Amino acid sequence: MVTETLTTSHSSQAPITLSLMRRLLIVLLSGLLLSACGYGNALPPTATMSPFGNGKDTKVGDLLIQDITVVTNLDTTFSGLSLSVINNTLDEDTLIGAVIGDVELEFLSDEAVVSTLLVKPRSTLRLGHASSLKALGQPELTIGSFINIGLVFQKAGIVETRAMVVTNTGMYSDVSLPAPLVTPSIKPEDHGADH
After folding, report:
1. What's the CATH code of the domain at 115?
2. What is the predicted pLDDT for the residue at 98?
3. Which of 2, 62, 65, 81 has its CA 20 to 30 A from that of 184?
């Protein structure tokens, strides 16, 4: 049960912390929170879409999120999001959390881990596809399936959707992911040699 008071950045109370937003997003996507009705208007606005193909588009607050796709390497050990966040407003926002399934993703900028990603006013933030910005993790995936994803923005709120899982080949080959994990080969012991 959520025991902390949640407020949006539009109120006069303290803003939601990064840690609290991430925990809230994981709870929402894990299905542990059955309905937001009992919390009234205390939760941030949420946008949800149903799956109908890869490259999904959705909107949360004043932000438009386009081409949402989960990209994985061939052995599905590492995965990331490929998407664009378009901010046509005069206010900046911040991407403070992302999950694929129930796995929290790590943000990277030029291969360095960062805690948040800034969405500048009147600009587009690109993740994965043709970008040095990444949101990576190791969720369990099946190529060609749909999986729940969630994004948490400091001002716009939470967006939940389902996105298609594709490999980083073809049009997604420029989505940089860590190399697949390689299992070392085990050499049989030479049982005939005397030691």
Report:
1. 2.60.40.1890
2. 95
3. 81
Assigned domain for 69 exists: yes
Domain-embedded: residue 26: no
Six-digit token string for 66: 């386009």
On whether residue 34 sits in a domain, the answer given is: no
- 80: Cα separation from own chain's centroid: 7
Kindly report each contact of residues 51-60 with a partner whose C-beta sits within 8 Å and lies 24 or more positions away, as own/partner: 51/146, 51/161, 51/162, 51/163, 51/164, 53/164, 54/163, 54/164, 54/166, 55/164, 56/161, 56/162, 56/163, 56/164, 58/159, 58/161, 59/159, 60/151, 60/153, 60/156, 60/157, 60/158, 60/159
| Lookup: tokens for 99 | 């999950």
Domain count of the chain?
A: 1
Measured CA to CA, the distance from residue 168 to residue 81 in angstroms comes to 11
* 135-158 pLDDT tens trace: 999 999 999 999 999 999 999 999
Kindly report, residue by residue over 72-96, the tens digit of the pLDDT: 988 888 899 999 999 999 999 999 9
Name the token pair of 78: 């590492």
pTM higher than 0.70: no
- Other C-beta atoms within 10 Å of 86: how many? 18
